[in-house]
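Office hours follow-up: a student asked to see two folded examples consecutively, so here they are.
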Amino acid sequence: MEQSIEQINRKIEKGDAVVLTAQQVCDLVDSGEDIRAEDVDVVTAATRAIMSGTYAILSFPVESSHSFLRAKEVYMNGVPAHVGPCPNERLGILDLMLFGTDHSVDDSRYGAGHLFRDLAERMSVEVKVVTDKGESFKTHVTLDDMPYAMLYGTRHAFKNYSAFVNTSDEPAASIFHAMEFGPRLTEATISGCGQINPVKNDPLLESIGIGTRMLMNGSEGFIMGPGTRSSAEKPNLTAFADMHGMKPEYMGGFFTSAGPECIVSWAVPVPVTSDSVLESIKERDRQLKMPVMAVDKRACVGYSDYGDVWEGTDLMIDFSPNECIGCTLCEPAEMCPMASISFEDGEVKLDRYTCFNCGLCSTLCVTDVYTANLGSINFELGGESTNVPIVLRQSDKKRALELSEKLKEQILDGSFRMTSMVERIRT
């Protein structure tokens, strides 16, 4: 059975289309349902994770014409911006590129991911400009002051990412952990939303291609092609979207022991155009291979699967403030990569709006204020079975599931219309 995206769009317009989330399809398969291609027209897939390959291009006025020749350096809330490529000579306008991994020169825990979220929140951002003559001035802008603000992903939505461990005898700092990795395989971190990830649901990129409309951080954008380091075994994608339509709850900054990183969310419609696409959609977490990487040598030391990560585990952290015993130093609050834990009048608070459900707090708290089953990874190492507990997740499957549901609703109510690809993506 084959059908085109145009045919599916017509069915949606008539109210005859069946749209399911990737999770719904997997749940039906687990319950014993025989899902055929003619039973579903579109599957919505999503992911929310740290995605280092992110940058923004912003253009906006900061001064009147002739006020300065051109900018040499620019900082936004202390985050360095790369000036250009257009110099905008004597126009008082900046064209800037900001890398998602750039950090503030004033605050080591604040990075471009935090800045992008602050802009989406419509917060006022300080802009410091150093001109080519060495003069400097400051002003403030909001996202609404920017005629042009686009977010780009150069390496997003990996079909399957990795688990990370430290095989050395010494602690190791890494972007893959909010703390230093404990030595000798004492803890693991993971990334990847498994069976609901967009590229997992179309790994051969038969339905997703150049020109596919998608949602990045809740804003409509388009897929441009393969991402950097994309391969047939681990494909990923490049895309862009307008920041003006982005939802702050789907983005942000995440602090790691090697500095702040950038959180990005994707939601992508996967039209069921053939039986082979459906077969990929039906694959569950236990069938998805997950490489285990040693951060101390950045080498693969084995393979687990996403069943270890998401089957039978808790997607959300359980919060019981009455269990707090008032430690002199609250390690969960100190180490929370989202700064979501605070104290007010001596009472502990958890900001669910910013919480990433990474689970680190549940591994640090000496009581049961924060609890969650994060699972553990199992793999063969040196001919022996190895089990390493997961202490931190760098993907938020709970919010990703919400995103896939929202995209499903938008497709059905007509507010999101699927596009046919211009060309297939070759990995």
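And the second, which I mentioned at the end of office hours:
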Amino acid sequence: MDTGLFIALLNPTIALALGAAFLVLWFYQRHRPYLAVLALSYCVSAPGFLFQYFTLPIGVVLTKLVSNICFTIAACCLSGAIIARYGRKVPGVGIAVLAGGGLAAFAWFLFVTPDLTWRILAMNFGFGGLSLLVAAELRPVRNNGPTEKILFVLSLLSSVNFFVRTLVVVIAHGPFASYDGFYGSSYWTTALLSHALLSLLIALCLFTAAALDVMKALKSETHTDPLSGLLNRRGFEERAAMLLQHCAMAKFPVALVLADLDHFKALNDVHGHAAGDRAIADFAAKLRSATGARGAAGRIGGEEFAVLLPLTDLAAARLFAEAVRTLYSAGGVVGLPAGTKVTASFGVAARSGDETLEPLLRRADEALYKAKKNGRDGVRVSYERPETVLVPEPLRAS
């Protein structure tokens, strides 16, 4: 196999391998459609490269048009998939204008005013514009993580490749009058090698992002209670420990609210466990809505819940508990018989000094016990402070 043929087959082989890999990823992660679009992008680019080197029975001119249509579709899919991966709205109009404009200019210089050099410039400038568009969309999220930053840089490098490299090679070795000797030119060699390198780097970055998504999902599953949708005990303790540390460093107040559904065993016995599950889910939804993003809410036991509230003193935490208690006791639970009232009791404690989670939980639990003992459907506050351990001074010699 000669060097030219090897280089010509390099990109189609890489593209098909990457397309197959993304397709396998999508098969196991159907809820991430951007993976299927990436697979389509790389698979469609493969015939684009092949039709640059091999001529179809329809003739050279139409083969080049088909090849560049494949490139355009692949570039649009790749751009849209990268932007969608990071939660940005895909700028369909911008992508269509840049890609369509480049392809239209290519067709003009193919059929109306045949000129190979301008065809090269038209397609490369269109793809360079797409690269800049992707970089602009990734700019607001580029500091969210390593993959965002790397893809942002790769998008800028791609634009430099399409704009600067193309201009430099065309000025230095152009213009190109025909395809005779074109596939042995410095332009074609640098184009294929730079595309192969950038494709691999972008694909590796996207593979890393997909792997991080899986790891994040697995971590979320191990820290989330499936019935309530809140953090489980392990997840709550980890999140609460982090919040307590941050608040201690900033000297911010923190409060803890414990809640327990009243007469839960009786509810299960009378109406069944499905009714109990609905009561838990309903209470968790109200608790999550009241907590928002400012604190950590978790289901730490069967029918027991906890909320850690940063930037909240004892009075504000008590108002929070009263609001949730009133909201829950005032409305019925969907799926339970009409007139069935489910209530909850609450215990509230505010952090004292650099108190850790364990003593804070103990004091809130004692307040919750008092609320249960005093008739339930109420809020009790712990005014107790952690015990201070006195260290005796060493005896001094007289």
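Two things to take away from it. The radius of gyration is 32 Å. Residues 186-223 form the longest helix (38 residues).
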